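#onboarding

Welcome to the new folks! Below is a worked example of what a typical request in this channel looks like: someone posts a single protein sequence, and someone else replies with the predicted structure as tokens. Don't worry about understanding the tokens yet, we'll cover that in week two.

Example request:
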Amino acid sequence: MKAKNDKKTKEFLEVSRKYEPSCMSWQAPVVWDHAQGAEIWDVDGNHYIDWTSGVLVANVGHAHPHLAEALGEQAKKLLNTYDFPTPERLNLARKIIEHTPSHLDKVFFVATGSEATDAALRIVKRYTKKFEVLAFWGGFHGRSFGPMSVAGIGGIKRNFGPLIPGGIFAPYPYCYRCPFEKAYPDCKYFCLDYLDRIVETESTGSLAGLIIEPYQGAAGFVFPPEGYLKKLEEWAKKRNVVFILDEVQSSFGRTGKMWALEHEGLEPDVLCLGKGMGSGVPIAAVVTRSEIISCLGPGEMSSTLGGNPLSCSGALAVFEIMEVENLIQKAAENGKYLHEKLLSLKDKYPVIGDIRGKGLVYGIEFVKDRKTKEPAPDLARNIVLKCVENGLMVGKLGIYGNVMRIAPPLVITPELIDLSVLILEKVLSEF
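Example response:
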């Protein structure tokens, strides 16, 4: 392989080391310059296939012409109004309500996913007049204090205490590493039955709601077994617990459905959206029922940049692109194709302990030994670096830092999938 030019990259990375803190997440040492669709070029002109979507954001692909045009036209017209309504915000609100489950009829716009989950938690606490929230091991809902207080990953909240009171934590169904050492389906959803014991022993009797992701991203793309989420929803309804579904990462076609909730016909009380909603433009939303959000009076919740006309124009363009280019169906079909390719690698390479996912979001969990399932974070890091060196932009994550994150833009083609898997297999063969 021809050695890559990295002169400008080294210069920019030195600027980063000099002026930026080291608190951001670890990434391969690449300085992006521009991207198109599912392909990236760095500042030195080196080319990569994108398996990141900029952390599951660029669902309609990078620099989509229609999205760029919509943003350009809006930027010449109006950028921000605070809470004054605009046609763009109202049209987007109507669009979201028309496309989400029929029982949801109100949408509140914010700027980021963290802001959306934080708002959801506050709404639920105000509505129920209770303060406890049931959350799950491995959960990631954002980095502000509200979401951080219901985070199920220690690294997110360590040394930031004291946190907001009321977080109660239960095991997420991480079947590959079941904390109860049981196996699905013989377990009969034991972790779900265990919830009552947790609430009985940890709650003060003030349980307002629960918050959960359809799949856990930061924990390593952990997917619950089929039927779990519906049973959890039923559990919540029986106990008058408000059900918050955090689809900041999983919405807008990522799992092969517009919303991940469609896979099991879920009817959450509160739905959080973000990331792919703007496909690079900062925008997020809380979708809920009138009955719930009417607990707030005028001026009791707002967002300086939430629902600004620029972001709303971008989100409307994202809807149009997804419909015209049939990206949801493509995500389902190409995701199935990618999954088959990845499974073929698992048969060849014993360092792959587990492959899991849906649509165009997959995780490859690397282990030192398949029997012991001992995590291999150093191996995962080296494989990621080698993939990037060979032209495949990819990242890693997971509770143990041993999971490769695979989440290409929904516009990726079978041809680019083939090239991607060839690069990954080349790297795996070297290890």
